[in-house]
Amino acid sequence: MGEWITNSAWLITALPLFSFIIVGLFLRPLNEKLAAGVATASIGLAWLSSLLLASHYFSAEVSAEAQKTLIPWTVEWLKFQEGVTVNFGVLLDPISVMMLVVVTTVSFLVHFYSLSYMHGESGYGRYFTYLNLFTFSMLGLVVAPNIFQTYFFWELVGVSSFLLIGFYYQKPSAVAASKKAFIVTRFADLGFFIGILILGYFGFKISGEIQTGSQPLDYAFLTHPEVLKAFLNLHLANGNSLLALALLLVFMGAAGKSAMFPLHIWLPDAMEGPTPVSALIHAATMVVAGVYLVARLFPVFSTVPDVLTVIAGIGLFTSAFAAIIACTQDDIKRVLAFSTLSQLGYMMFSLGLATMAEPLGYTASMFHLFTHAFFKALLFLGAGSIIHAVHSNDVWEMGGLKKKMPITHITFAMAVLAIAGIWPFSGFFSKDEILATALHGEHYVHFIGGLLVAGLTAFYMARIYFLSFWGKARTEKSSHAHESSWVMLAPLGFLALLSLTTGFIPFAEFVKIGAPLQQEGIDLHVAIPGTLMALLGLSLSAWMYTGTLNVPKKISVALGQFYVAIKNKFYVDEVYSFITHQIIFRFVAAPVAWFDRNVVDGGVNLTGAAMRGWSSALTLIQTGQLQTYLLWFVFGTVTASLLLWGIFLGMV
Amino acid sequence: MGILSWLILIPFLTALAVIFTPDSKKIRWVALIGTGIHLVVTAVASWRYLELIQGNFDSKALFTQLQMTEKLPWFASLGIQYFLGVDGISMLMTILTSIIIFTGVLASWDVENRAREFYSLLLILVTGVFGVFLSFDLFLFFMFYEVAVLPMYLLIGVWGTGPKEYSAMKLTLMLMVGSALLLVGFLALYHGSGLHTFDFTQIATVRFPKEFQFWVFPTIFIGFGILGALYPFHTWSPDGHASAPTAVSMLHAGVLMKMGGYGALRIAVYLLPDGAKDWGLFFMGLTTINILYGAFGAIKQKDLKFFTAYSSVSHCGMVLFGVASLNMLGFKGAVYQMFSHGIMTGLFFSLIGMVYGRTHTRIISEMGGIAKVMPWLATCFYIGGFASLGLPGLAGFVAESHIFLGGFFGNVWSDITVMRILTILATMSIVVTAVYVLRGLGSVFLGPITDHHFDGLTDAKLTEKLCTGILVATLIFAGVFPIFMGHMIEGSLVPILNRLQASGALAAIGH
Amino acid sequence: MLRQIVLLSLFLFSTGLYGILTRRSSVGLFIAIEMMINAAIINFVAFNRFLAPSHIDGQVMGIFAMALAAAEVLVGMAILVMLFRQRKNTDIQSMNSLKH
After folding, report:
1. What is the value of ipTM here, to two decimals?
2. How high does pLDDT run on average in chain B?
3. Does chain C reach chain B with at least 3 CB pairs under 8 Å?
4. A89 phi and psi, to 5 degrees?
């Protein structure tokens, strides 16, 4: 059975596709409930298959004690030209199998949760169709054996994200958010695409010299040591490494998808989508695609340490930047969105600090990706449960939900502890590894930054937790809130269980790269300060946000303009809006449109007008008087005869 | 009479049948049946073509291997023949045209005003288009070319909207300038070859002197470029499309503009390879302007048809960009793009017609939120929009990735750094396209319904669903299984490439 | 002898040409045209007589030309009469309705 599923791994990707087609085209118009059921069931099947696959794959791997990369299925999709062929296929290696499990698990739980959460919404069937499309695209991205397939599905997840953010298409803010998300990531993908062009062309050149048995865009080719050597010999005209340029461009795509600063602006707005969508796409799966891409190409990135330094820097900055903003936001989903940004930054900087010789950061990053997917999905689904009950996103309109929604409360609290990094919850283990990477690699800035972010994370997560669950109900609605249905609570419970247990998985056994890991288990030099920071954040938050709530106001007043700037997300959105509307639209698009209508088209009309002018000038000669014509005729004849006569006589 | 003659004759016979149909209510049925038969015959012909070539091609071939040829002397004294044939490119274009005219008839189902004349002119126009794609005698080609261009004047002038006389006049005159350049170019080829024949395959055996090619190539390329909306000769397109009735816009943007790209590749580059090498970079620059300029221009348009027309300028620029990059990837991308843009823009214009038929406005800002009442049309519009911004899984992506890869791979005759810079500039259009597509479609379809008149509007009827459904299905099919088209066209591009690569010193090849 | 006859025909032709260029009345124009045609006929006959007396082509041509002139006058006068009925004048300056 395990062998069979390994060889038919394409089935896991194909199941959501089949269900997308069947549900979207046939079932949805007939019966929306049936459509939702079939969509959920198909993902459930994919989930079970990927669990089976993972257990087989990892058990086999542990016994073999070797990194295995399998490509059980490929098909020729497109032949660009001789020597540049794109083969679609399925690639199984530790990170792709891990991602298959993460994606199908969260996707299935979100599908299941949505059965109740979206109940009664118009477009119920459409919602599940989109979710299926997303799951298919995400799985296709995860198993891609070449960078072109990654790009293919990269765009498809982008569009499913667009469709789902804009699910409430009659709400202008949702429409604007979906547009923004698509365009910002599209802009980033431009870099990715140019990166692919560069890798494709020089890969093609190199593939003529080095026999690897794979196509230039395959990951197997790009990570081949000989090929990398050849790549490193290529330089730009100014002496910079060509590979560094290509990788920076690829990282631009990754940064767009994973919402790294300064391309992060779409993610907070993306919270306009339905909450389960935020849990699935904008917390657990799609946004980690950027991290995943860097990890997938890690052997290539590791040859250019400068690029990794950039990645680590951007990761750390995003992490801190987002954590600061998260402390001031009032919309519960936006806080979670900024916390996602912050955690993604964590994963990125961990990858950036890793090297092939000391690959702890790689494992740590993947571990954090894995644990984060579950506790962040749990946070979002819990927030969804609250929003469903209170009908508001504003934490100041909640309060006192502890007694009314006990299960949501318990699970949410567990997720908060997990993200804050308190033992024995999963976040503790993965965060510990990341901080250990920074400390052991002697990157003290990153270590201290990481610690501060950990403290901030604990603070703001506890803030929304205390504000929504503790104290008294601050509005009418929140005082009448009641617990959600079991369909919504079951995924919460399951995810809470995962948040509690996934930390104990010996992750480093399964996912590793390069040299063997030096250190195993928990390092107290890291765990103690990390936990202390988390506890500090939690208790500060508990002091500020339980009771009379006067302290936060005083602090915000004391911070003055600085507080306003944070609250407005440091005005990054305004800068973008200024650049697009005031500069590009006004000084590029509008002049082009004007130029075309007036100068280019004016030229055409001018030609026409000139012709008409000539013709009216010529009509002046055409008097219509036969006698005038005759006079000209006689005049002409006489002149011509004289000339001819002259020629005849040889006088002219 | 061979199957290719039938491909040209069927629309003509349908036009005759339309003229002699007694009951004016049945005209559209006659036209639909005629074009439906054509679709079937095209399918049979393409099947036979695929069987004949079986995916094999001679990678050393210097001459287009035409299949199913038909040859009859016409004006033997001038070397003019009735010479039909197909290769992969013309087969693909024939399929495209056949799909577009079939859906075009469906899209103009509600034309009541002088329906007889409308349908017959439409069918005569399309007869010309098939003639262009299937004839391999330059004279015959030119004749069909004019047959395809001229009915446009009447179709826009009589059945159009807005400033239709002005647009029709402008369009026809500008295209006539193109025709004049082509005629000059063709006559130069006729006399320059010294073979006293218009036979394409014969002329292709001649390697024209470099000097000759240097002057004739731009003449022919610009002649075709005017039809293919080459900057700065594109301004007939926004006005023409905005004024034309739905089916005419579909045919014009979907098929006629493709004749430009087709001719530029098939005649200009293939027959005059040395000229192409000299001018490649120049035209690449011009088409880069096309691509960006069309995209930026589209952002600020207020009328949906102008919006689509500017997007066509951008996309047709990509066709010529691919042609001008002079390598396999670029050529292949250009042909893919012709097909994909044809279907995509046909879909766009048919949808605009349907939306206009309901809302009675094409001004983007006057519409809003109509996805609620027309989910089918909105979905199709979005699929078309995604195809136009190059979403994977739809036809546009395959075309664009070929074209950009082609530009980046470069060729040995032009400065590769400049080519790469131009390519990267052109690549930026994918972002700009996303901006205008999402902005435009968003304000038409999404958000709250802005006008209470829109509340009572209905979604697509059966004929409209059929029309848009066929186009959407084609877009998806071409995007998911590009390998089919690859098999069809690859072999036909090889001779063009080989002729480019053959040494310029060779005075004559073959004969 | 031929010289004198050619001079006569030149005089007739020039008079006719002057008439055509200056006359405003259509009837006057017709008379002038007739004079020019007659000048041509005289030339035909005279050249035939003095240069190639063995042939009669010139004489035949003269008769043809006379017939043609008669036919022309017939058609022309008919048009003129119709025009006169409509406009009550024969001034050719006013006959420009095709131009505008």
Report:
1. 0.90
2. 87
3. no
4. -170, -170
More confident residue, A171 or B504: A171
- Determine the distance in angstroms separating the CA of A598 from the nearest CA of chain B, rounded to an integer: 10
Q: How many domains does chain B have?
A: 1
Chains A and B touch (3+ CB pairs under 8 A): yes
Q: Classify each residue of A409-438 as buried b or exposed e, where b means 16 or more C-beta atoms within 10 Å of its C-beta.
A: bbbbbbbbbbbbbbeebbbbbbbbbbbbbb
Torsion of CA A344, A375, A174, B430, to 10 degrees: 40
In this predicted structure, the answer to whether residue C97 has a pLDDT above a threshold of 70 is no
**Residue B77 included in any domain:** yes
The structure's pTM equals 0.86
Residue B283: domain span: 3-501
Assigned domain for B465 exists: yes
Neighbours of chain B (3+ CB pairs under 8 A): A
Q: Is residue B509 part of a domain?
A: no
Boundaries of every domain in chain C: 2-93
Task: Tell me which chain A residue has its CA closest to the CA of residue B59.
Answer: A82
Which residue positions in chain A have pLDDT lower than 50? 65-66
Distance from CA of A282 to the nearest CA of B (A): 20
Residue A238 half-sphere exposure, CB side, CA atoms within 13 Å? 3
User: Touching check for A602 and chain B: CB below 8 Å?
Assistant: no
- Is the pLDDT assigned to residue B507 strictly greater than 50? no
CB < 8 Å to A601, chain B? 235, 239
Contact call for A600 and B405, based on CB within 8 A: no
Closest by CA to C91, choosing from C23, C33, C16, is C23
Q: Choose from A127, A179, A205, A582 for mutation: most chain B CBs within 10 A.
A: A179
Q: Which CATH architecture has domain C2-93?
A: Orthogonal Bundle (1.10)
User: What is the structure's pLDDT at B57?
Assistant: 66
Please list every residue in chain A whose beta carbon sits closer than 8 Å to the beta carbon of residue C17. 634
Whether residue B429 is contained in a domain is answered as yes
Q: Which tens digits make up the pLDDT trace of A441-494?
A: 888 888 888 889 999 999 988 888 888 888 777 777 777 778 888 888 888 899
Cα distance between residue B228 and residue B240, in whole Å: 13
Q: Do B215 and B268 form a contact (C-beta atoms < 8 A)?
A: no
B 244-303 near A (Cβ less than 8 A): 293, 296-297, 299-301
